[in-house]
Amino acid sequence: MRLYLLALNPTDSVTGGFLPAAARLGLDVTVLTDQPAAHRGHCPDVEILECDVRDFRSVITRVSTHHTPDGIFTNSDHLQIQAALVADYFGLPGKSWQAALRAKDKAQMRRHLSAVGADTVWSRELGPGQDPAVLTGPDVRYPCVVKPREGVASEDVVLVEGPEELVLRCKEIQVRRPGAALVVEEYLTGELCTLETLGDGRTRHVLGGFHTDVSPPPYFIEQGLTFVSAHPESLVGQVLDQLDALGVGFGVCHTEFVVHQGRARIIEVNYRAIGDQCDLLLAELLDIPLFEYILRTHLGEPLPRDPGARTDGAARLAYPCAQRAGTLTAAPAPADLLVDGVQLTYRPLREVGERHALYRTNRDYLGVLRAIGADQETVDRAVAGFLAAQRWEITP
Fold first, then answer.
1. Do residues 162 and 138 lie in contact, with contact meaning Cβ atoms separated by under 8 Å?
2. Cα separation of 345 and 334, whole Å?
3. 182 and 225 share a domain?
4. Which of 4, 223, 338, 349 is most buried by its number of CB atoms within 10 A?
5. What local confidence, expressed as pLDDT, does residue 153 receive?
6. Residue 85: is its pLDDT beyond 90?
7. Cα–Cα dist 110/208, whole Å
8. Is 114 a domain residue?
9. Rounded to an integer, what distance in angstroms lies between the CA atom of residue 284 and that of residue 262?
């Protein structure tokens, strides 16, 4: 069977998750990407073809002039609509392109949820190049959050307290992202959580979720996540109702929401697997062929009624972050350790000698530490001990 995988830059999810899973399933894989050299460096044994994957018409042409497809798949935030359209063109299983658009376009997500009565969040959209001064009217609710309409990874997401700051932040983002539309929406207070789901269009499984540690405002950098095998049923029901309203139910989905006074409100819907190595941890922790399940849905195979996921484990991820711009001059090497029964896996995300700006996003991550054990207290202690024993140095 031939699987076409659409990708931009290489990611751990693809190179460490989906491509090995495709090999285990015996699939013939063709990677379509606009960055073929980067992918060949990571997976030299996989067929890689250059393609303007942001244009669904180019993808259709590339597939039509190659091998007959049995599945179209992407784990990229930026390519879900394209993959959905291409799958639909070839009559293959896939996500609804309308649902993929609602998930990707944060302004449309707010409008749609409000229109169907699922949830109403005050928000305004600022078109490309539009003067932010139009947002200084009396109806603006402060504090509020400014974000790119189709952004990812908290890039250029910032909390603002008043009209002058709102105009300033919008103009700053417009300089960095010319042509991008922005969303300004009310700040939703509460504990940040995630819900991880997997569906085949008929059956949907909740795989658990995470509690997320976020940096203090005005920025929103995810600094660590703690696995939760089951959020309270009432909260899960609220989130699933909102996903149903958006039409999200096929394949894997990573949903971020806040909880305040028993109410769950969606922050964003990422219609793909959770990233930053959380998906790698999830597959290992739950002890299920997670990546194979995801690919099988895109080949038209039903999910099992019971995926067989374990629920007796505890896990945490931690991300040492750069606190300033500069060159990384000292950092720990990759490590696989067993400490007090806790499996620790550390992987660097920057090489010593690399120089970077300060991004105030997950691009500031210096490495990722995955920890899996039998109870949360022991896992947390092992994580704290490992991080305290390491040294990361950045020279301005």
1. no
2. 8
3. no
4. 4
5. 80
6. yes
7. 25
8. no
9. 31
Contact 102, 246 (CB under 8 A): yes
Asked if residues 231 and 209 have their Cβ atoms less than 8 Å apart, the reply is yes
In 3D space, the residue among 102, 302, 12, 18 whose CA is nearest the CA of residue 4 turns out to be 18
152 has pLDDT over 90: no
Name 50's bridge partners: 33
For 48, the domain range is: 2-92
pLDDT for residue 137:
82
Helices 106-115 and 233-246, interaxial angle, to 10°?
Answer: 100
CATH number where 286 lies: 3.30.470.20
The predicted structure's pLDDT at residue 154: 85
Tens-place pLDDT, residues 251-289: 999 999 999 999 999 999 999 999 999 999 999 999 999
What residues have CB less than 8 Å from 41, skipping those under 6 apart?
Answer: 10
Q: How far apart are CA 1 and CA 372, in angstroms?
A: 35
Q: How many separate domains does the chain show?
A: 3
* Closest C-alpha among 250, 243, 296 to residue 272: 250
H/E stretch holding 346 reads strand 342-348
Side chain identity at 293, as an amino acid letter? Y
Check pLDDT > 90 for residue 223: yes
Q: Which pLDDT score, from 0 to 100, does residue 103 have?
A: 97
Sign of the torsion formed by the C-alpha atoms of 99, 18, 70 and 72: positive
Q: Are residues 339 and 266 in the same domain?
A: yes
- 106: tokens are 């944060």
Q: What is the mean pLDDT of residues 100-123?
A: 97
Do 248 and 340 share a domain, yes or no?
Answer: yes
Query: Is residue 112 included in any domain, yes or no?
Result: no
